[in-house]
C-alpha cells in the first residue's frame, strides 16, 4: 500500500474592508468641518492592512505553500498530520541536494503528492545492500534513520540518469519509495519541505 502523501491546505486570504473615509476639502465660505485626522489615520491603517494581506498572499501563493502530512513513512522527522510549509521556488532557482526533504507528484499517479528524502541524484551510482545505502561506492551516513526504522532490503546497483532522483522515506521498514516506483524525474519535484508549524511540539525547521 502507498503509505505517505500529504493533503494540500490552501485558504484564500480574507480581507475586512470597510468604507474609505476621505477628508473633505474646505473652501472660502464653507461650513466648518470636523477634524479630518481620525479619517486620515483610518485610511493609513486600512492601506497598511491591505498591503500586509497582499504581501502574505504573494508569499503563500508564489513562494510557500502549507501542506499536511498523511502517513508515517517520514518518521521521526515528520509525523502523521503534521502541518508544514514547502518552498515552491527553491528548485526553480536552485539545485536539489542529497538529504533534501522534497514533495513531488507520485510518478504513477500525478494527482497524488508524496514527501520523501533525496538519497542520490543525476550521475550517481546507487546500490543498497541489506539496508545499507551506497552512493558512488561509499556508505551513506544517515543519522535521520533510527535503528528501529531500518530494514534489510537490497537494491541492485544502478546509475541515475539526467534529471533523475532516488528518494526514500526515513522510516525504511514501511516506506513506499524509489525502491518500489523507481527514480523521480526532476519535473515532478515541486517543493522543498522547510518548516513544521503545527502541532506546537513539532514546530521547527525540517532537516
Helix content: 10-25%
Query: What is CATH's topology name of the domain at 63-205?
Result: Umud Fragment, subunit A
Q: Rg, please?
A: 25 Å
Average of the residue pLDDT scores? 84
Q: What is the strand tally?
A: 13
Report the sheet with the most strands, covering strand number, pairing sense and barrel closure. Answer: 9 strands, antiparallel
The secondary-structure class comes to: alpha+beta
Low-confidence stretches: 6-34
CATH class of the domain at 63-205: Mainly Beta
How large is the count of helical segments?
A: 3
How would you describe what is shown here?
It is built from 3 helices and 13 strands. The chain is α+β, with helices and mostly antiparallel strands. It has a domain at 63-205: Umud Fragment, subunit A, CATH 2.10.109. Strands 1, 2, 3, 4, 5, 10, 11, 12 and 13 form a 9-stranded antiparallel sheet that branches. β7 (132-135) and β8 (138-139) form a beta hairpin.
Question: In summary, what is this structure?
Answer:
This protein has helices at 37-63, 90-93, 178-181; strands at residues 5-8, 64-70, 83-87, 101-106, 109-120, 125-129, 132-135, 138-139, 155-159, 164-168, 184-185, 189-198, 204-205.
Using brief descriptors, characterize the structure shown.
elongated; 9-stranded antiparallel β-sheet; alpha+beta; 4-stranded antiparallel β-sheet; 207 residues; 33% strand; Umud Fragment, subunit A
Helix-strand blueprint:
Blueprint: E1 5-8, H1 37-63, E2 64-70, E3 83-87, H2 90-93, E4 101-106, E5 109-120, E6 125-129, E7 132-135, E8 138-139, E9 155-159, E10 164-168, H3 178-181, E11 184-185, E12 189-198, E13 204-205
Antiparallel strand pairs: 1-2, 2-3, 3-12, 4-5, 4-12, 5-10, 6-7, 6-9, 7-8, 10-11, 12-13
Amino acid at each position: 500500500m502507498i503509505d505517505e502523501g500529504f493533503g494540500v491546505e490552501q485558504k484564500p486570504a480574507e480581507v475586512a474592508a470597510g468604507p474609505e473615509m476621505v477628508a473633505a476639502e474646505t473652501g472660502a465660505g464653507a461650513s466648518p468641518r470636523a477634524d479630518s485626522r481620525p479619517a486620515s489615520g483610518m485610511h493609513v491603517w486600512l492601506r497598511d492592512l491591505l498591503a500586509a494581506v497582499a504581501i502574505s498572499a504573494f508569499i503563500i501563493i508564489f513562494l510557500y505553500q502549507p501542506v499536511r502530512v498523511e502517513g508515517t513513512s517520514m518518521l521521526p522527522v515528520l509525523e502523521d498530520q503534521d502541518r508544514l510549509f514547502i518552498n515552491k521556488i527553491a528548485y526553480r532557482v536552485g539545485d536539489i541536494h542529497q538529504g533534501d526533504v522534497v514533495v513531488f507528484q507520485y510518478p504513477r499517479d500525478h494527482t497524488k503528492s508524496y514527501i520523501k528524502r533525496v538519497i542520490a541524484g543525476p550521475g550517481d551510482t546507487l546500490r543498497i545492500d541489506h539496508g545499507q545505502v551506497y552512493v558512488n561506492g561509499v556508505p551513506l551516513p544517515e543519522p535521520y534513520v533510527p535503528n528501529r526504522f531500518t530494514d534489510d532490503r537490497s537494491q541492485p546497483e544502478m546509475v541515475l540518469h539526467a534529471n533523475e532522483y532516488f528518494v526514500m522515506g526515513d522510516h525504511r521498514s514501511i516506506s513506499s519509495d524509489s525502491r518500489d516506483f523507481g527514480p523521480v524525474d526532476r519535473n515532478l519535484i515541486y517543493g522543498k519541505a522547510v518548516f513544521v508549524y503545527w502541532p506546537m511540539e513539532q514546530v521547527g525547521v525540517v532537516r
